[in-house]
């Protein structure tokens, strides 16, 4: 039996997206001090650094922005927690704010005019949520729901403040790269739907979730959610999990999937990536190496 994972004490918005009165309220991070100082209880005040406690977690999983940019973004917001199942952002609502996810797993789903619910992506630590409507020059509403799969910890950023922050820091290129990476992910997903079996797509989904959550234990997922993510049926997912269990790649319990042999799962997923130097690691000439595209299979920041 696999134990479930908890992030700590639960405080949430009660299932509703925060309104403007909540978004523009004072910062709730317990480590924030007047005058821009940040500390955390016994750690004392610290200026221009992230609190080392849970109130200001560092970048984790598959962050698409650099560490330095991410730390600046997190410092601009204030903390908000969501319980599993809470609506974090609602389709059709105005882009009054965005969220920077620092812990937990969320799913992005779109409601179609015919009533169908379309799965779009999983999101996790180190990723921005709702930034498209915030940055839209046409004032477009949110195009999808963002729902917490597990308990999520985020930093809330007001739209106007974030736009000003992007302009002052010259972050247009970073956000463009993030948009390009997500477009490539969507293209890869569509190709997988017609070229891979359900079991192979399931193995890739579990591998990507492990990278995203930076954990070999995945909690909170239902077979229905996995079926939406792999573009298959619940029966197909159940059969795929059975094959992966028989191969020794995973073991399962209620809403818990544990990866027991990462090598086997990678083979099922067709992942052969290898570690690549970080973007700030000096190359042979002493200059910083250029950023390396994520692996298209597991989406870790590795080179194929």
From TrEMBL:
Swiss-Prot/TrEMBL keywords: DNA-binding, Transcription, Transcription regulation
- Give the superkingdom in one word: Bacteria
Location of the region described as Disordered in the Swiss-Prot/TrEMBL record: 1-30
A molecular function (GO) held by this record is: DNA-binding transcription factor activity
Q: Which Gene3D superfamilies does the protein's record reference?
A: Jelly Rolls, Winged helix-like DNA-binding domain superfamily/Winged helix DNA-binding domain
| Name this protein carries in UniProt | Crp/Fnr family transcriptional regulator
A GO CC annotation recorded here is: cytosol
Q: Which residues form the HTH crp-type domain?
A: 196-263
Pfam families, alphabetically? cNMP_binding, HTH_Crp_2
Cyclic nucleotide-binding domain sequence ranges: 65-166
Q: Which residues form the signal peptide?
A: none
Species of origin reads: Streptomyces hoynatensis
């Amino acid at each position: 039996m696999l134990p479930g994972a908890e992030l700590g004490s639960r405080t949430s918005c009660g299932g509703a997206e925060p309104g403007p009165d909540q978004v523009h309220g004072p910062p709730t991070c317990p480590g924030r001090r007047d005058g821009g100082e940040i500390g955390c209880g016994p750690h004392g005040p610290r200026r221009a650094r992230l609190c080392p406690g849970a109130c200001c977690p560092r970048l984790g999983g598959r962050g698409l922005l650099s560490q330095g940019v991410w730390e600046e973004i997190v410092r601009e917001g204030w903390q908000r927690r969501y319980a599993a199942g809470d609506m974090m952002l609602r389709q059709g609502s105005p882009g009054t704010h965005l969220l920077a996810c620092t812990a937990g797993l969320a799913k992005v789903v779109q409601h179609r005019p015919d009533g169908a619910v379309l799965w779009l992506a999983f999101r996790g630590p180190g990723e921005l949520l709702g930034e498209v409507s915030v940055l839209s020059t046409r004032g477009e509403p949110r195009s999808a729901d963002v729902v917490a799969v597990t308990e999520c910890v985020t930093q809330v950023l007001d739209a106007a403040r974030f736009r000003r922050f992007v302009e002052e820091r010259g972050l247009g290129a970073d956000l463009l790269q993030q948009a390009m990476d997500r477009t490539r992910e969507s293209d890869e997903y569509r190709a997988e739907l017609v070229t891979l079996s359900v079991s192979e797509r399931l193995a890739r989904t579990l591998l990507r979730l492990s990278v995203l959550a930076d954990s070999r234990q995945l909690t909170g997922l239902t077979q229905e959610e996995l079926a939406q993510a792999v573009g298959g049926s619940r029966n197909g997912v159940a059969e795929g999990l059975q094959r992966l269990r028989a191969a020794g790649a995973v073991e399962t319990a209620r809403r818990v999937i544990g990866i027991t042999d990462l090598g086997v799962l990678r083979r099922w997923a067709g992942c052969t990536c290898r570690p690549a130097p970080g973007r700030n690691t000096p190359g042979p000439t002493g200059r910083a190496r250029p950023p390396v595209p994520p692996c298209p299979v597991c989406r870790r920041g590795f080179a194929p």
